[in-house]
């Protein structure tokens, strides 16, 4: 038969009460001892400082200096009256002024005035101009005192000042300082007993009567559920401190720390528009720390009280990276197809000229064709050393050619291979694609001039900055449009537009770059972009 265990497991409330009581009692005992020791030490320092200051005041006073050498010791003399007044003001037990022969000019016991100091050996040390402390027995009993020399106007020593307190006064002051500490410790212990009981009851009520093991199980289950989500989860309290972040959120933002305030940029991007309101947002696209996210936010409310906010995140950066790379590859393939078709036509022309024995024409035709190719694509292949960007620009060249737009890439353009990372190529495709498309639209809307677009890409090795200029000879941009052109959904081209320049601005801001728009004379527009490559925030530009 199995024995029933007699071991009784304490409840959480009982454990809390016992632990708090033990902690309070131990802490108060140790604190009282330390404070008592500190009070005694402080009291001694204060006594020492007080008698030192008093001795200095008396030794430098005009009354003492003038009367010490010109008048005889007297119980009713100026020095005695002066020292009694200082003694009452500074709460010292005695102030003794004596000349170089150690004859007293002042003393609490007027009977000894005019007599030699009772401890001449102790006082003689100050006849050499030194200040010193001592513990000796005098007329008033054991005491703690200081000896300070007195000088005349010619800085000649004319006497000594002795200031001190008796042991009785020192002990009385120390006991007066210790009594509140003892009483406070006893009161603290009583309050600790009451507080321990109240705390145990309060915690039990707040935990809904659950024991620690039950709470641990619930927390573990919640953590596993949060980390199993395919979306990132970030929750903050009303002070913007992070209270929850699952594994996906930590992968997106490795600097997240529970209990710390959320980074300003991250907070503004996720909660800036909804933190103080009560509305939720669903599937909004935001750019934060060079990551394109789909964000849904919601307030955290319990019993009608707002506790904070939470956000669900889906990372679009990786998908967008693949999509943009695919777009660049597609443009490259389309450009190759267009060139293949064009060269097939030219080969047929060469074949016909050969059959007609027009060899001089064949040579001229090939020379012109080669020159046209080098002018259009040779510079691109040599200087734009990112296959994705080069292919993308080939596609744009063909697109412009089909729309009868003269699209020129300046001969001095340069994108070195060593800086053409994948992330930079993606950003360039976004920037160039939208700026070139806008330029094509601008020149197509102006039928009075020959449509021309010029692109310049230059890398400044010294400052590690990529400079982009897209210039067109279109109709220009009005000041009203300039004021709103980088706002989402704003467009002069109708509904469901207004995203292109917003993406350009987001890329520039993510890299701490610079973007300007200038109307040219007599007409046209130039978009100027600087993309720093040194302190990039963009993912992958390491």
TrEMBL record:
Its main location: membrane. It is found in: Cell membrane. It is an enzyme of class 2 (transferase). It holds the Pfam family SPOB_a. It comes from the Bacteria. The keyword Transmembrane helix applies. Signal peptide: none annotated. Its EC number is 2.7.13.3. Keywords: ATP-binding, Cell membrane, Kinase, Membrane, Nucleotide-binding, Phosphoprotein, Transferase, Transmembrane, Transmembrane helix, Two-component regulatory system. InterPro entries: HATPase_C_sf, HATPase_dom, His_kinase_dom, sCache_3, Sensor-like_sf, Sig_transdc_His_kin-like_C, Sig_transdc_His_kin_SpoOB, SPOB_a. The chain crosses the membrane at residues 179-200. One of its GO terms (molecular function) is ATP binding. It catalyses: ATP + protein L-histidine = ADP + protein N-phospho-L-histidine. It is a multi-pass membrane protein. Residues 338-535 form the Histidine kinase domain. PANTHER family: SENSOR HISTIDINE KINASE DCUS, TWO-COMPONENT HISTIDINE KINASE. This is histidine kinase. It comes from Furfurilactobacillus milii. The lineage of its organism: Bacteria, Bacillati, Bacillota, Bacilli, Lactobacillales.
């Amino acid at each position: 038969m199995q024995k029933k265990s007699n071991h009784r497991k304490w409840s959480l409330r009982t454990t809390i009460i016992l632990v708090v009581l033990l902690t309070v009692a131990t802490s108060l005992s140790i604190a009282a001892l330390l404070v008592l020791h500190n009070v005694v030490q402080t009291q001694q320092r204060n006594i020492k400082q007080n008698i030192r200051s008093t001795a200095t005041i008396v030794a430098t006073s005009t009354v003492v200096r003038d009367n010490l050498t010109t008048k005889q010791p007297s119980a009713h003399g100026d020095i005695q009256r002066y020292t009694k007044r200082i003694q009452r003001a500074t709460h010292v037990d005695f102030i003794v002024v004596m000349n170089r022969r150690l004859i007293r000019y002042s003393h609490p016991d007027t009977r000894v005035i005019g007599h030699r100091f009772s401890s001449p050996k102790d006082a003689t040390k100050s006849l050499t101009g030194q200040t010193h402390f001592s513990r000796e027995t005098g007329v008033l009993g054991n005491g703690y005192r200081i000896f300070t020399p007195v000088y005349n106007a010619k800085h000649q020593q004319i006497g000594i000042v002795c200031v001190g307190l008796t042991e009785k006064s020192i002990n009385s002051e120390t006991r007066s300082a210790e009594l509140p500490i003892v009483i406070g410790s006893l009161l603290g212990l009583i309050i600790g007993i009451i507080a321990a009981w109240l705390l145990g009851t309060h915690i039990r009520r707040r935990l809904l009567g659950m024991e620690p093991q039950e709470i641990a199980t619930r927390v573990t289950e919640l953590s596993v559920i949060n980390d199993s989500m395919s979306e990132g989860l970030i929750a903050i309290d009303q002070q913007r401190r992070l209270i929850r972040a699952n594994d996906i959120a930590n992968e997106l933002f490795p600097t997240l720390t529970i209990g710390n305030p959320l980074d300003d940029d991250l907070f503004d991007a996720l909660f800036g528009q909804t933190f103080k309101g009560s509305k939720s947002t669903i599937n909004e696209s935001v750019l934060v720390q060079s990551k394109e996210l789909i964000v849904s936010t919601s307030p955290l409310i319990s019993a009608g009280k707002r506790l904070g906010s939470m956000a669900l995140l889906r990372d679009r950066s990786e998908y967008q990276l693949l999509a943009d790379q695919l777009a660049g590859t597609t443009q490259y393939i389309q450009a190759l197809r267009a060139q293949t078709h064009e060269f097939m036509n030219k080969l047929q022309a060469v074949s016909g000229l050969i059959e007609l024995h027009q060899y001089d024409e064949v040579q001229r035709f090939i020379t012109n064709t080669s020159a046209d190719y080098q002018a259009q694509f040779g510079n691109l292949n040599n200087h734009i050393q990112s296959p994705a960007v080069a292919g993308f620009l080939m596609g744009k060249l063909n697109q412009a050619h089909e729309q009868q737009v003269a699209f020129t890439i300046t001969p001095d353009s340069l994108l070195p291979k060593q800086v053409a990372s994948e992330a930079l190529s993606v950003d360039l495709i976004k920037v160039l694609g939208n700026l070139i498309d806008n330029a094509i639209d601008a020149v197509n809307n102006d039928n009075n001039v020959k449509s021309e677009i010029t692109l310049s890409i230059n890398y400044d090795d010294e400052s590690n900055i990529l400079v982009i200029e897209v210039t067109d000879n279109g109709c220009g941009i009005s000041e009203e449009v300039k004021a709103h052109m980088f706002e989402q959904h704003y467009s002069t081209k109708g509904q469901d537009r207004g995203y292109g320049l917003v993406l350009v601005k987001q890329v520039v801001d993510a890299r701490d770059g610079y973007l300007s728009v200038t109307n040219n004379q007599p007409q046209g527009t130039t978009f100027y972009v600087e993309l720093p490559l040194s302190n990039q925030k963009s993912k992958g530009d390491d």
